[in-house]
Each structure stands twice: as structure tokens, then as C-alpha cells.
Amino acid sequence: MRRCLTALLALLSLLFCASPAFADGHGSSAWLTYWDADAAFEEVRALPGRFESLICFEAFFDADGKIVIPPETEALLDAMKDSGAPLWLSLVNDVEQEDGSYVQKSRDLLTLELATPSGRSAHIAKIMRVVHRYRLSGLEIDYENIKKDTELWGFFTEFLAQLYSILSHNGVSLRVVMECQAPEYAVFPEGPVYSCMCYNLYGYHSGPGPKADRDFLKELGESWKAVPGEVHMAFATGGFVWAGNKVDQALTEREALDWLEQHRAKAKRDPDSGALKAVVYDDKKYTLWYADGETLDFWRETLQDMGYTHFDLFRLGGNTVESLAEFLGQQ
Q1: Cβ distance 296 to 279 under 8 Å?
Q2: Which end of the chain is more exposed for a tag (fewer CB within 10 A), N or C?
Q3: What CATH number is associated with residue 87?
């Protein structure tokens, strides 16, 4: 895998150096996942220089609170060093247990690490060792599941202010990805770039529907005006198939197109969300909702009309180049 990534990034280095006009992509950033890196790089190669930054996803924690860089993420970071693009790493509050299982988005980890000044300082020291080891240009904090815990939000914002100060002193940028309700529970420090997760309107927690719609985005657009500095709005690509009211599978855009072809179905566009929907009856009712380029364009324009200028995609890999180009404003 390391050999393949290095070869791909050698090409990316030429592409980034030749096409520095990131601003034409509306200040867009995108995530590269270690489990689908090759497909993600193919999409970057098809749209050279169009993304403001590319973020390596992910690093997480072990049961002792140590930061874990999976071998695949390490290979991704090593390859990215030669790409000519800023080197970003996303740190997530997932915890790998001793038996190999995972606690997703652990609130207990955040409470343990951030609830005291000494805990926050020790947590930041661990982070800085990773920053220096990999010579990162930027760090992304993706700590989720704080929900309505206002006390933990307070600890989190103190941590962000301290981390931003230390990173800035070392010439490293900070991005913070947050769930969409975050501004309801805390006041955030100036300095970091903040990215709002503009998705999960429908998903594993609900019956069928789009990941976002116009009303949902407008509500977020209003609430996130309270967040200081540079605010990015992040969209999720692909979609889901529901069997009845339960998610049957998550699909990329390309997988959704294959699903439609397999079932000889045709999707219709929903005017309130820009997303595509199809219903198939087999052993039960199956409902597909997914996003294409027109959907992403609909979501982007909805928030652009409210003054937002920076947009992120989770994730690259499994998208059509036409859809990405439409989102980036090249059609």
C-alpha cells in the first residue's frame, strides 16, 4: 500500500505545483480516508489544484489514552509529505479497546482528558508530539458526541484556546469539526477554522430521507453565524438504502448508481433537498436517498446565499468526477 500511495502522490505533487489556484474551488477542503485512499487520489488527480486542503483521516486513541496512528494513515501521511499540498491529520475521539473493538466518539475519553487544567495540558503534549513527529502543516480536531453536556463543552473550548495558541506558536494551523448543534451549547474561541457537519438529518438514527435539506441548512446557517472566524460548511457525499425504516447499507455515489442499475430503477430529484430518491419493492420496501453533483451544488448555493464561502466534503472516493466538478463550480 505504501508503494502505491507514494507513486500516486508523486503525480499529485506535480498537479498541486502546477495548479495553485485553490480559491477557484470556493475554499473547499476534502477528507482522504485511509481505507479508500487510492480512489480518493484518483479524484484529486482529475481535479488538480481545486481543493484548498486535503485532510488525512484518521488518528484515534487506545484504551490508555495514547494516540494511535494506524499503519494505513501513517502511509498516507508519509506519501502526502511529497505531494506539495499542506499536510493535515484528523484526530478523532474513537477509542480502540484491548480486544480490538472500538468505542465510537467516546465522551468518557474527553471527560477524562479535558476536565482539568493538568489533563488538558497533558492531552495537548501528546498531540504536539504527533504534530512534530509528522511535521504537520495543520491539525484537525474531530471530537464528537458531547451533545448537551455544557460543562464538557466548557472544558472543550478551554482546550481549543490553549491548543490553538501552542499550534500557532509552532506555525501549525488548527481546524475543528463539530456537530451542527454546537453553537447552542458553547461560545468558541477565535483563531481556529471551524467546520460544521451539515449532514445526518436522516441516517442510521431515522427512517428514510436526505442527509440535508434546504430548511435544515438555513437553520444551521443562522445558528453558525455566532461562531467566530473562518467557518466551513461540510457536506457528506453518497447516501443510504433503507430496508423499511432501518438503514440497510451506506453507499457512495457510484455505488448508488450501480444499485439503481441493478434494480432497474430510476431516481427522482427531491425539490426540497436536491437529493435523489428511488423506491424498490423486493422482499420488502427499499428506499434509496443519495447526493450527486447537483445535490452538492444545491446545498452549497443555499449556504452561499447566506454569506458562507468555504465548503468541505466528507469524503473523496466513490464520487463521479462530474459531480465533484459541479460542486466546485466548474460546470
Answers
A1: no
A2: C
A3: 3.20.20.80
Domain-embedded: residue 100 = yes
- pLDDT classification of 4: cutoffs 50, 70, 90: low
Task: Calculate the dihedral angle through the C-alpha atoms of 205, 207, 212, 215, rounding to the nearest 10 degrees.
Answer: -110
**Number of other CB atoms surrounding residue 211 within 10 Å:** 24
Per-residue DSSP letters for 141-195? EE----TT-HHHHHHHHHHHHHHHHHHHHTT-EEEEEEETTGGGT--PPSSSEEE
Per DSSP, the three-state class of 268 is strand
- Over residues 66-94, the pLDDT tens digits come to 999 999 999 889 888 766 678 999 999 99
Measuring CA to CA, which residue among 33, 42, 55 is closest to residue 15? 42
Q: How many domains does the chain have?
A: 1
| Pairwise CA distance, residues 8 & 97, whole Å | 33
In a domain, 85, yes or no: yes
Residue 329 lies in a domain: no
What single letter denotes the amino acid at residue 100? G
